[in-house]
Amino acid sequence: MSEAPHTVKSYEEELKNLNSNIVKMGGFCEEALVKATQAIISRNSDNAETVIKDDEKIDKYETLVEQQVVNLIALRQPMAIDLRETVTALKISSDLERIGDLAKNISKRTLLLNENLPKNLTEALIRVSSNVQKQLKSILDAYLDRSSAMAVNVWEGDEHIDDLTNLCMQEVIKYLKEDEKNLDDGTHLLFVTKNIERIGDHTTNVAEQVYYLVTGEYLEGDRPKGTEPIVTGEK
Amino acid sequence: MIKISAKNVDVFYGKKQALFNINLDIEENQVTALIGPSGCGKSTFLRCLNRMNDVIDICKVQGEIVINDFNINDKGCDVVRLREKIGMVFQKPNPFPKTLYENISYGPSIHGMAQSKQEMDEIVEISLKKAALWEEVKDRLHEPGTGLSGGQQQRLCIARAISVQPEVILMDEPCSALDPIATAQIEELIDELKKEHTIIIVTHSMAQAARVSQRTGFFHLGELIEHGLTDKIFKNPDNTKTQDYITGRFG
Prior knowledge:
The structure holds two protein chains of two kinds. Chain A contains six helices and no strands. Chain A is mainly α. The two termini of chain A are 33 Å apart. Chain B is of the alpha/beta class. Helix content of chain B is 36%, strand content 27%. In chain B, the strands form two sheets. Chain B has a six-stranded mixed beta sheet, with helices on both faces. In chain B, strands 2-1-4-5 form a four-stranded antiparallel beta sheet, covered by helices on one side.
């Protein structure tokens, strides 16, 4: 809405800096999800270990954003769009931090998985993950472009993720039933699937924040939901 | 309920137009804050509401200002009565160079509001209590008002304004000369006073406007750019100019 820069340049800088930290943090989250997924498919332990190690970076950004937000509120008393920038940065950073944690958890489980998983399972997982990756990328672009329309698209897209998650869950359950020996891998895969779906949920949270940031209004109505999940989890 | 309704108000200082077609409704028993950069016309507008602009020879006010169904710009308006109903508090505390008691009793006595010394004593006490000053000054009512601290002087001026039971109180940057503690006392007072009075406050402090008012109007270059609920104005204003001003983006 406002193109004009702040009269006080240091304030302008602080807000820009906050913005760019969210973008960087989002970039790390995207990378974590991509690598965590690749690690499952290609059985690349290095990738998994990188995701586990790099989660620390994401956590540090969350702390940094929180400090910046507290400083802005205490020292600048932001109003209107600046207030929304500040408050949404805090909320988005906590969703991104959770995304980092979930990617880390996926990678920890990946290290314990059998090297020869059935192809149908990995394919089902990739379908969910690549859709979530798209959503995450879109919402970070929407944040950068201040696009409420893109935010709504992402918000609506969560339904499809839920459906793909359920399909994937069904595959994993079938696999579990096939053989007792599949119990360990199958259980891990259930959690992996659920974690990817949760990343999608956090992405949807971010979409709500971006919408509020841009419009000053809350996205109304119930969240889009896919078919009833087989495994209930927090939503 | 609407207490004051300004309709198509234009103000000129000589040939220069200071306000352009202002239309603004002021809600009863609420605090309305008027904000905007220096020279935007907010104080000029405030001064229209009790015809204070009359004292400036070159100033001409057009349009209607309706208070209690009566257009105060009509020729038949009794300006002394009007200013009894619409009190004013200024930026710099301006107590009369008289005792505290006389500062308060002056207005009620010229309006013939007290029949006896006892009644006047009551008016003085009630006014000072309402202005949250009584406890601090009750033992020195016959000392000069100018001997008080700045914050106390301002509360004395508020007590003086409310002593004649005005329906509306106009405040023109009442805290700009005060420290944060005295400011907080005035703000608390404003909150109390709105139960019985309608308050319109001009302030340069965005934070103060946000803290004390229920409605806010933003003036720029003599125009009323936007007005509405204070929380809307400060969280999500409709107009880009409003947003640029309150976020400190004015070029």
